[in-house]
Amino acid sequence: MKKLLMISLVLISFSIQATAIKLTAEQVQNLGIELGKLQSMTELPLFDAPAQVTIPPKSDYIVSTLYAGLIQQIKVTVGDRVNKGQVLTIINSPEVLKLQQQHLKSVNDLQLSRAELLRDKKLFNEGVISDRRWLKTKMNHQVYQSYVDETGQLLSAIGFSKRQIKNLEKKHNISSQLKIIAPISGVVLDRKVKAGQRADALSPLFRVADLSQLWLDMHIPQQRIHEVNIGDRITVLGINLNAKIFLLGQNVDQQTQTVLARAAIEGKVKNLRAGQVLSVKINKMHDELMFQIPSTALVKSKGISYVFIRTVSGFTAQAVTVLSKNAQKLIISGKLKETDVIALRGAMALKANLLGLGGAE
């Protein structure tokens, strides 16, 4: 009996989809049927979620000083755009003065060592000095060279250019001023010091970030994280923003029971700031073409959903799959074309007409 019932349901469903409804234009108007084209979609809206604008770690820098000193002058403040190598502040540091003196002494010692090396090389070639004496002279020269390299690298680390180091070695003009420069081109997000304040070694002075690339961090309830995939697109109401999810967290936050989903914003977006919280919509990428229709365009019969496609002589019913729905709109897929014209309103009248022709409900 069950088998016969299933067969009859399949036959009824097939007859509904296969049967054409012949209606004239006047009959269509009298039935109050409203026609319209299908609205195609390539993305399936999943759900809304809060998202915070964040800066990628590689673009976020804390600027500090290697040597302690007194803040003599501040060149920038919060919100300023800076270029790589631009001076942010000047520190008066006795330790910087001492470092330059050490470098000059190392250079002087190296010069004396080089003269001794040339002399002993000649004496060794003439057989005047022993192998041990020649080896000791070479090792001493290497040690002095390492001292020069070390102090030179320390000067480079605090912002001295190669040209400035060469001028120091040539002119012996030393200064206690330490210029703190921007490590990247970006925006000053925070200033932690003021003029006249003492800055300790390695203490943070500024925060500079490159805001050309931003992320959106979303915390998705763990019950729904399975709906989200890498590559899903993020949209924000009222903002022309294009972002795609590239990371899904592998752990659940114990307090909030949420999972991190991170999206990279493509291109520059105006009026978007780090730390800002937005309400975003997660859109699932779908392989097949989808269509958005009003809920009034859909009818059901025996558990199967249909829309009515306009033909030259009337309408035909086409079975569809409902992917998403709310009170007013539905998103469907099926054997439909973007050029198809369907009944947006009056579908119930067409269903009654069709079932009347088929003789079953």
H/E element order:
HEHEEEEEEHHHEEEEEEEEEEEEEEH
- Average pLDDT confidence is 88
Give the helix tally: 6
Distance between the termini: 19 Å
CA radius of gyration: 38 Å
Q: Into how many domains do the coordinates divide?
A: 4
> Can you name the CATH architecture of the largest domain?
Beta Barrel
Number of strands: 21
Major sheet: arrangement of strands: 3-12-15-14-13-16
Low-confidence regions: 1-15, 357-361
Secondary-structure-derived class: alpha+beta
Shape: elongated
Query: What share of the residues lie within helices?
Result: 25-40%
Kindly estimate the percentage of residues that lie in beta strands according to DSSP.
35-45%
Reported by name, the CATH topology of the largest domain is: conserved putative lor/sdh protein from methanococcus maripaludis s2 fold
Text of the CATH class of the largest domain: Mainly Beta
Q: Describe the main β-sheet briefly.
A: 6 strands, antiparallel, barrel
Descriptive key words:
Elongation Factor Tu (Ef-tu), domain 3; OB fold (Dihydrolipoamide Acetyltransferase, E2P); elongated; 39% strand; alpha+beta; single chain; disordered C terminus; 4-stranded antiparallel β-sheet; 4 domains; 21 strands; conserved putative lor/sdh protein from methanococcus maripaludis s2 fold; 361 residues
